[in-house]
Amino acid sequence: MILKAFREKSDQKFIDKLLSSKNTAISDKKIESVGVIIDASEFSDAEVFKNFFHDLGIQLPKIKVIVFVDDVKKTERLWGNYFTKKDFGWRGKVKHAELQSFLNTEFDALLGFYKNEAIELKMVTALSKANFKIGLSGVDDRLFDFILDVGINDFEIFKVELKKYLTILKKI
User: Fold this and answer.
1) Is the pTM for the entire model greater than 0.85?
2) What pLDDT does 162 receive?
3) Closest by alpha carbon to 138, among 148, 126, 123?
């Protein structure tokens, strides 16, 4: 129990260090590739993101979705990419090859569609090499470049708002 608390504190320090050295330069180019991080306990339909971004003109091979699963027993019903708490070592060391590949991809935009304060979700968002990070309010504001104040269950409102602001910012 003490080791767990020590590790969480160590991981939070690692995230704080990453965010303090964050590069704030955002490119003006249009979004051609998107990464999406979702929490399976809050929202589990990854296909709606693929369909939404495809409707915005982003090609399907350039849309990657990764799902955080808190309970390893729930992974058997998931398809595709997912990660758990056990995929991280000390000081942000990633042990999962598919997660490392996701993190190394330089997406034009990264969408963090979660409100959970799990350290692993924060770590994936902070470690991502994405150029423009979009998130929901209620999570550490330092993680994202653009924040929408929309609930997890209001996906239709989220789609309308995101499309509106991406159009205003000339990202789509």
Assistant:
1) yes
2) 95
3) 148
